[in-house]
Predict the structure of Abca1 protein.
Amino acid sequence: MHMCELPRSSFLLISLTYSVNRMVTSVVHEREARLRDGMRMMGMHPAAFYVSWALTYVILYLFVVTGVVVILVAGKAV
């Protein structure tokens, strides 16, 4: 492994850690508050619940991964 590779791999790991931490925190909060059960009792379709989670995290990870790719490509060009 080249010495230049170590900071890049560490940056990738650190940048994705925040997103995973936020996702786990949200899931735990949702379970503790029993939000899904409440929404189902109000008539929300179960698929709508899962689609909302998927869209939320696809959009979140899209921004994170795009930023990481831009920074890594810009660093490689230097």
The CA atoms of residues 19 and 47 lie 23 Å apart. The mean pLDDT is 82. The radius of gyration is 18 Å.
